[in-house]
Amino acid sequence: MAQETSKGITYPESSDHTRIWEHFQTLATDADAIIIGNVNVQRFDASGTWNKPAGALLVDVVVVGGGGGGGGVPDTSSSQASAAGGGGGGGYARRVLAAASVGSTVSVTIGAGGAGGTGSGASANAGASGGTTSFGSHCVAGGGSGGGPGLQSGTTQAVGGGAPGTGTTGDVLLGGSDGGNGVVISAAPAFTGTGGAAGVLGRLRRGPAVTASAATGTAGYAPGGGGGGAVGGTAAGSAQAGGAGAEGVVIVTTYTA
Per the record, which residues fall in region Disordered (predicted)? Predict the structure, then answer.
């Protein structure tokens, strides 16, 4: 009687009397059912539903969380400056799943980028945190934190950037990068908060390059980049908002028969 391998390949025993070509036909038919023949790639930049392709064998999922927003800065006089922190980058997770362990549909949630912090008068706000991105419960990555708000400074001050998000569920779990610090030295902006990069797929986003004028923070790079911090230069300027963080992403690669 014919036997099967652990992968489902049928082979004959010495007592079988089937003709040799029939053995080869059975072998080829069995192999067709488990050999990868096609690749299906779906990218989600907005929340939705993944539908499992016909004949799916393996599902390779990558998720990136949303980036944090950059901090805002307050009004400044001609003897003051202000520099806010950049938002942290979103986390990264990857998981490879047997298709049989995944339902026919999976809910996809894309983490939003955090809003940049606002400023008004003598005060300003930190940026908002980025949202969590998930492929059902199979693969999850958190968002970066918002950058700290700038202060009115006639001397020297430093404001911290946002902490990065990290992958929380998956085979490979990585963090994004920290948002850069905003630094004022001798009443002049020395470092404007850089937006952190998302893990693996992202890029850093530098803050605005200004010294005298005031400027809003730069928006983070997708996917999952943190927004840059706002800046108030050496000339009198009005309050400015930080840059928004970028939304996350889900990329699903399905290998089918």
Answer: 146-174
Alpha-carbon gap, residue 185 to 196, rounded angstroms: 22
CB 177 within 8 A of CB 67: no
- Residue-by-residue DSSP string for 129-145: PPPPEEETTTEEEPPPP
Q: Which two tokens stand for residue 94?
A: 């990857």
**Domain extent listing, the chain:** 3-35, 37-257
Question: How many Å apart are CA 73 and CA 151, to the nearest integer?
Answer: 7
Angle, CA of 215, 195 and 247, to the nearest 5°: 105
Query: Which pTM does this prediction carry?
Result: 0.86
Whether 113 and 66 have beta carbons less than 8 Å apart is answered as yes
Are residues 164 and 91 in contact, defined by beta-carbon separation less than 8 angstroms? yes
Q: Which two tokens stand for residue 170?
A: 């998956």
Q: Residue 88 corresponds to which tokens in the numbers above?
A: 């942290």
How far is 60 from 36, CA to CA, in rounded Å? 13
**Collapsed DSSP state (helix, strand, coil) of residue 44:** strand
Report the C-alpha gap between 171 and 62 in whole angstroms. 10
Beta bridge partners of 166: 175
Q: Which residues in 237-257 are b (16+ Cβ under 10 Å) and which e?
A: bebbbbbbbbbbbbbbebbbe
